[in-house]
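FAQ: What does the model actually see?

It sees only this:
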Amino acid sequence: MPFAHAAYAIAQFGEPKYPPGFRHFDYVNPDAPKGGTLVLANPDRLTSFDKFNPFTMRGNAAPGLGLMFESLTAGSMDEVASAYGLLADDIRIAPDRLSVTFHLNPRARFSNGDPVTAADVKFSLDTLKSRQASPSVQANFSEITRAVVIDPATIRFEFRTRNRELPLIAGGMPVFSQKWGMRADGSRIAFDQIAFEEPIGSGPYVIEHHSNGRTITYKLDPHYWGNDLPVRVGTNNFERITYKLYSDDVARLEAFKAGEYDALVENVARNWVRRDVGKRFDSGELIKREFPQHNGTGMQGFVINLRKPIFQDVRVRQALDLALDFQWLNRMLFYSQYTRLDSWFANTELQAKGLPSTGELALLEPWRKDLDPAVFGAPPVQPNTDPPGSLRANLLKARGLLAAAGWTYRDGALRNAQGEPFEFEVLDDTSASAQWAPIMAQYTQALVRLGIRVNYRAVDFALYQKRLDAFDFDMTTIRFPDVQVPGAEQVDRFGSKAADEPGSGNLIGVKSPAVDAILKALTQAQTLDQLLDAAHALDRVLMRGYYVVPQWYNTTHRVAFRNTLAYPAKLPLYYGAIDWITSTWWFKPHQNVAP
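And it is asked to produce this:
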């Protein structure tokens, strides 16, 4: 069978940055010393865990499990869509782009010492595509029709469509041993029932110990097979990595200032200015740095659940957007550190600007009768309360939109034609409630002026996640992770099929033939220009749908850390702060005193 590509690396568009025979990525220190215990706190809202399986819907997976799983390829933090051999040492894309074949590195081993085989790779795909995996995981691999074992060291993935992202998706699939979940008698635990059975992966770390669903420690596998691979040189420099989970943001911050862990990624502007201070900062024991990054911002906002009847009119959703006074929040609570989000792809070339291009119109025109005419104009400008604007003017406009949608103020409340009051619940989890309370107070006050009653409810994270999985909420705050090259994850977030799958990423409940068609064009784009046209078209439709009340973003990573830690001189371009720390930082020699 002829191949169009047989290489050490692939790129979705163009060519990989690093040439054959490269020794390491530019953003690592190849001579970084190894050793020490890095202690971290909750990397997200998780406050406890009850499983080691991150691929299923039931329960909460422990933080850091990605340290145990590897894939056929690894991306770099200074490219948007390239993949270099990791478990695989050769990658071959078929001329028709309907399949990709990987040859496995003969040295690759699982943590139990077994070689990684093509049968394990096939087992991993079949499992992650099955109903036992969470809907979001299933969706990510839905366009891969099957994996075919060619021989013990060769595996071919076959695709449903000619999607240039699919070879990277196949290469990035987590691979685990067929023996994970196998009992001593040879019987198998159902994948969605695997809880504290330790994963059998090929990654650099294994679980050393854990306690009460609140702490977990990973230890470098002394038999790890991949230390000298170009994609691994200069990485995984800590002997151990421990996560301690705190009950809320206040406890987490105070624990850092007391010296209980080593690095804090600060997401709260007020904390960064007013609370990340004290004698340990004054003495230089703790350091604050803002690290630039070029990630797309993703979208963070008050997410509106379209499954609720009161939110189905776009004029209602636009009115809710008008009620948020970002300028006051930024001035009074955020110390002017943030910029208002005005796109699902802000801070990237994927953001729609100006009037639609010819390529964008080709995607939008077939759906003109279904789309708001405004989609064919410039993207919406977010409400502003700086003079000559004002919150009062925005609320007057909101009142007009609500009235046009059938909601008028009478008998002390905003009511529809049936006399039912306009009221809804904003769901949050208790770990973040202290941070969001003053923000919600301002937003709720503005909504009350419109006659809308808002109930703010904070619940523990486990219940919060369960309600999100069941789409049992009216409004909540979500940050959709940023992407540099949008693809399959957008189908999970906005595809009509995902809207009916509990546990999927389509929390909003978007069910639009126009969006589905644009998503198809996005995932099947064969050139960068086609990808940009589809992303711009999607951005226009989503922003004019007012599916979220957009919030704000910052273009730096705010990190506070012990002065015993060091990081490479050259920073990556596209990265998450926690992953960057765990993968490339190190302790200065003879200075780590953590247990």
